[in-house]
Amino acid sequence: MFMFKKEKSTRCIQSSLTEVKQVRMPDNQQERPEYKGWIVGFTDGEGCFSASVFRNKTSTLGWQIFPEFVLTQGISSRSALEQVQTFFGCGKIYINRRKDNHREDLLRFCVRARNDLMERIIPFFEEHPLRTKKQQDFELFKKVVCMMNRKIHLTQTGFDQIKEIVSKMNQ
Length: 171
Fold this sequence. Notes:
This protein has helices spanning 33-46, 78-88, 114-127, 134-149, 156-166, and strands spanning 10-14, 20-24, 47-55, 63-74, 92-96, 106-111. A hairpin with a 5-residue loop joins strand 1 and strand 2. It contains five helices and six strands; from the N terminus they run ββαββαββααα. The longest helix has 16 residues, at 134-149. The protein is globular, with a radius of gyration of 20 Å. 39% of the residues lie in helices and 25% in strands. It is of the alpha+beta class. Strands 3-4-6-5 form a four-stranded antiparallel sheet. A two-stranded antiparallel sheet has the order 1-2.
């Protein structure tokens, strides 16, 4: 049986004809390209980018737009959601008690804070695109969140534009 000593791996890259640099290769699982690919695949299969519109009398226009990124798993796979939560450094895991034909309760990893969506979730999926139709939903989701970040949703025209975009998501 072979035992490998864990060492920080490096790779030489040539940045110009005369200069060679040592670049540290990821030695932590979350920095590895295949780990990021796992998150993309997990999201393609079990994720959702959504924005809900609901009445809220305390909001400027009487309505609120609620964007969120969600990954869902059975309770027995909680560790997968915890790994994603650790990777992104944000979001919460909620239990969704099921009363239908599923054998176990579901867990939902949710990111709702606009700051986290803008600074963590959206940049990740821009750099690592999804491979299914969910990429189209992500693009619409990104558009909504960016419009909200610019406060466009606080005008009737902007709100109506966002409502139109939301109606095209997750069909």
